[in-house]
Design brief:
This protein is an all-alpha fold and 213 residues long. Helix 1 packs antiparallel against helix 3, helix 1 packs antiparallel against helix 7 and helix 3 runs antiparallel to helix 4. Keywords: Membrane, Transmembrane, Transmembrane helix. It holds the Pfam family DUF998. This is DUF998 domain-containing protein.
Length: 213
């Protein structure tokens, strides 16, 4: 389920074939499924499937509790479920229009707590927070409890890349000038997709080792 979620969360890559006209160096991925964009249903479907697969993964981890045996792994499972629910909400409540592209569309707010002005910003923020919690908790489970060992190195490298891309993106969103905000977000989301796939493989490998004991 986690590997499939990682694949579906990469649906934005299809824009290189569909050619929406958005600049990948400077645009948000959420703009791909805004109300007036062509092929928006493809990206909405990708995010909804991501949410469904991660919710299924959370249930599979928690019931039966064979794969989660401590507070770190339980936290990771709950957090990835919260990510799934937030991602579905994010997909079903998209941005209505794009400022500067759609006639009559107001500028999107930046600065302090823009989440209070648009529900899509809130659901996006909740999804990012949830997957970060899952990453931290699953990494702690891998290192401190000897669970999901593939996450120790490969997953750790991917997590570090996601953190750096997130810092880059937040800084670019707050500063004036051209700091390739869109590229930063694509690295961030791409890293999250790879990390989910890593976690799925780690669970599979660890489960086989556990069963053989």
């Amino acid at each position: 389920m986690l590997v499939l979620a990682g694949i579906c969360y990469s649906s934005w890559i299809l824009d290189f074939f569909f050619h929406s006209g958005l600049d990948p160096m400077r645009s948000f991925l959420s703009e791909l499924d805004s109300g007036h964009m062509p092929h928006r249903n493809v990206y909405v479907a990708g995010d909804v499937l991501t949410g469904v697969f991660t919710l299924a993964a959370a249930v599979g981890l928690l019931f039966p509790p064979r794969l989660v045996r401590n507070k770190f792994s339980i936290t990771a499972a709950i957090a990835i479920g919260a990510f799934g629910a937030s991602t579905i909400a994010d997909a079903l409540m998209p941005i209505e229009c794009l400022a500067g592209r759609d006639p009559g569309c107001p500028d999107q707010s930046r600065g302090l707590l823009p989440q209070l002005e648009h529900i899509h910003a809130l659901t996006s923020s909740l999804a990012v927070i949830a997957i970060f919690v899952a990453m931290v908790a699953a990494s702690l489970a891998a290192w401190r409890r000897q669970d999901w060992q593939w996450l120790r190195y490969g997953g750790g490298v991917v997590f570090a890349i996601v953190v750096l891309a997130t810092v880059w993106m937040l800084a670019a969103d707050r500063l004036g000038g051209d700091y390739r905000l869109g590229l930063a977000q694509r690295i961030q989301v791409g890293g999250m997709s790879v990390w989910m796939a890593f976690w799925g493989v780690a669970i599979s490998r660890w489960g086989r080792v556990t069963e053989s004991r």
